[in-house]
């Protein structure tokens, strides 16, 4: 290959990878011939290399021409927490974690976001929006429920089917309102005789309809009722714990709360996956552990026990909700506030109603009927303009 051909090949490689039209112009301005001696060739090659290095350095040191990212340029991601709000016209939208309006109020009702989508009501129809306010599924359903495991139950002509996140009907409407949410790829649904079985994500029955009641799968097991007794099955319908309990809840962190005995001798027990009892407590009401603590009612007062049955927080509150993000709402007298896991009052008793914290924010209502959101210090982030009450639907109901 000639020296001209060699230089031209080098020129093409450099200009295509570095985008340096100036260097290309320099070479073409001084075309090489076969009569050039080695000295001139070396000089030009050196100049070419130095030019490339200078160009690279200038590009690296030059300020970026890309515009800085701003809040208005970047769409919110699916993980950004948003919270329902309502305006004076009783139209619902969403605020962000700073109390700023994120989705302008325009709906009759809205629900919380799950899996990046929130159900919204427009007129008498329900649909779904994403965190940017885009209607991903247009409002056209009689009823709609929260997304879980990638699917949501919707009602058409008084029957429930399931749609995916794009709005595609993946399981045609055929079930009653007792159809449950998907979990672990399965959903408990009743047949025409009201017997429960489980269907997969295509609608195929994978566990026959033979149960009187059923809960969603959790940690690979589902609590089901047969002949008035509750037990646990695996994902193919085999019994793991035979029916033996008066009632049973889902497994959480390897444990489930079950009920043994009938009134007045009602015992709740915490069991592991083998069915071994960790402790028993004679009470009329207890809840599945949340953040390692079990909420229970003893003689009309509420407290919290750990998984060994030890009373971590003695029963002394008129009412209480489960721990969430380290706080639990409790009622003293007629007011609500929040305690931490050490039973220390973290947020004063200031509220008519107090809900669980989620993403560092809790919904509360004040005397007089106004409601809003507070952070973990008790600072108000947003407050309703009118005394509408906290009337947003739960999302798991048909209302």
What does this molecule look like?
By secondary structure, this protein is mainly beta. Among the domains are: 59 residues, no CATH class; 100 residues, N-terminal domain of TfIIb, CATH 2.20.25; 82 residues, Thrombin, subunit H (Beta Barrel), CATH 2.40.10.480. The protein contains three helices and 34 strands. The strands form nine sheets. A four-stranded antiparallel sheet has the order 4-5-6-7, with no helix packed on it. Strands 8-9-10-11 form a four-stranded antiparallel sheet, with no helix packed on it. The chain has a four-stranded antiparallel sheet with strand order 15-16-17-18, with no helix packed on it. Helix 1 runs antiparallel to helix 2 and helix 1 runs parallel beside helix 3. It is flat and about 55 Å long.
* Main sheet summary: 4 strands, antiparallel
Number of helical regions:
3
Please give the number of β-strands.
34
Q: Which fold name fills CATH's third level, the topology of the domain at 78-177? A: N-terminal domain of TfIIb
DSSP helix fraction = 10-25%
CATH class of the domain at 78-177: Mainly Beta
Task: Tell me what the CATH architecture of the domain at 78-177 is.
Answer: Single Sheet
What is the general shape?
flat
Estimate what percentage of residues fall within beta strands.
35-45%
Separation of the first and last Cα atoms: 82 Å
Averaged pLDDT: 84
List the uncertain runs. 1-74
């Amino acid at each position: 290959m000639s020296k001209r051909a060699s230089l031209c090949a080098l020129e093409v490689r450099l200009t295509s990878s570095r985008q340096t039209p100036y260097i290309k112009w320099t070479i073409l301005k001084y075309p090489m011939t076969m009569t050039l001696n080695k000295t001139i060739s070396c000089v030009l090659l050196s100049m070419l290399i130095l030019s490339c290095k200078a160009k690279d350095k200038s590009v690296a040191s030059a300020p970026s021409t890309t515009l800085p990212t701003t809040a208005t340029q970047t769409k919110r991601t699916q993980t950004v927490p948003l919270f329902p709000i309502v305006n004076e016209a009783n139209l619902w939208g969403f605020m962000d974690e700073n109390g700023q309006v994120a989705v302008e109020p325009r709906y009759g009702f809205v629900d919380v976001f799950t899996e990046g989508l929130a159900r919204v009501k427009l007129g008498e129809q329900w649909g779904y929006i994403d965190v940017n306010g885009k209607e991903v599924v247009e409002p056209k359903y009689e009823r709609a429920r929260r997304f879980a495991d990638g699917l949501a139950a919707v009602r058409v002509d008084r029957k429930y089917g399931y749609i995916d996140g794009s709005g595609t009907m993946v399981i045609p409407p055929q079930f009653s309102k007792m159809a449950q949410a998907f979990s672990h790829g399965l959903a408990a649904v009743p047949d025409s005789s009201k017997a429960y079985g489980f269907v997969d994500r295509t609608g195929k029955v994978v566990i026959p309809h033979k149960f009187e009641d059923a809960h969603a799968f959790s940690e690979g097991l589902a609590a089901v009722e047969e002949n008035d007794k509750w037990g646990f099955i695996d994902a193919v319908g085999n019994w793991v714990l035979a029916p033996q309990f008066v009632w049973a809840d889902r497994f959480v962190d390897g444990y489930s709360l079950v009920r043994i005995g009938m009134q007045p001798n009602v015992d709740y027990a915490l069991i592991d996956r083998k069915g071994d009892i960790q402790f028993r407590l004679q009470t009329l009401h207890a809840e599945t552990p949340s953040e390692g603590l079990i909420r229970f009612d003893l003689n009309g007062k509420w407290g919290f026990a750990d998984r060994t049955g030890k009373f971590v927080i003695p029963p002394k509150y008129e009412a209480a909700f489960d721990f969430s993000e380290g706080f639990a709402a409790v009622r003293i007298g007629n007011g609500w506030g929040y305690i931490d896991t050490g039973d220390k009052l973290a947020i004063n008793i200031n509220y008519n109603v107090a809900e669980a914290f989620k993403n560092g924010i809790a919904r509360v209502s004040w005397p007089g009927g106004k409601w809003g959101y507070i952070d973990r210090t008790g600072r108000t982030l947003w407050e309703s303009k009118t005394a509408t009450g906290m009337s947003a639907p739960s999302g798991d109901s048909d209302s």
